Amino acid sequence: MSKKKYVKEILKNFRIENCKSTSTLMNPKEKFNKNDGTNKMDEGQYRSLIGCLMYLTTTRSDIAFNVSLLS
Known about the structure:
single chain
């Protein structure tokens, strides 16, 4: 499976295929807060998404930092 196809499958499976893309990396000094006013995500679904992204980082080192920070 190609990386492009895998990414499209991830976006489709997690219903985020219409998300906005960006060419800039995440701010490494970003502070996360559980009470930031956003809707809660199912913990199992979040872990599954992080797992998919961690697999993807084995070939895309430019996103490895962001995924490890979120996990």
